[in-house]
Amino acid sequence: AVNYRVTSLKIWGLKISKISDIPEIEKLTTLKHLSLVNNQIEKIDSLDNMRELTSLHFGDYWERLGNNLIKIEGLDTLENLEYLMFWHNKIKKIENLENLTNLKVLGLGFNQIVNTLELDDLTNLEELNLEYNMITEVKNRNNEDIYERVF
């Protein structure tokens, strides 16, 4: 079990730890960077109180390491998020990104995403990786030049 009595933790990374669940992670309200690459996590549903997060890594492009993520909830509350990496997972649908207006990098490659992505409000987006998905449409009327940098 993870002890969440630490109240001022800023960075937390557990790579290749074989964890499958992150219970009560929402208690880490001061966390700025969270990296849980190459574990067995299937679901994230408790990010609501983690409003200080600026980077969230649940997959690595170069090492081809991810998790077993299918569902992510609570992203809409992470308004300070700048980097969101979910490479090499099993995500089928991603939504509620409209409040992530500070997002600069969005890495969703190597998933199973099939829905239309609504990126209209992501005006600071600089890098977008959607490779190896089945996305039907990407809507981003405010940042047309992002398509030059889409991977």
From TrEMBL:
Task: Please give one Pfam family short name.
Answer: LRR_4
Q: Which parts of the chain span the membrane according to its record?
A: none
Matching PROSITE patterns? LRR
Give the keywords, sorted.
Leucine-rich repeat, Repeat
Is Transferase one of the keywords? Answer: no
| Key word Repeat present | yes
What protein is this chain from?
Uncharacterized protein
Q: Which organism is it from?
A: marine sediment metagenome
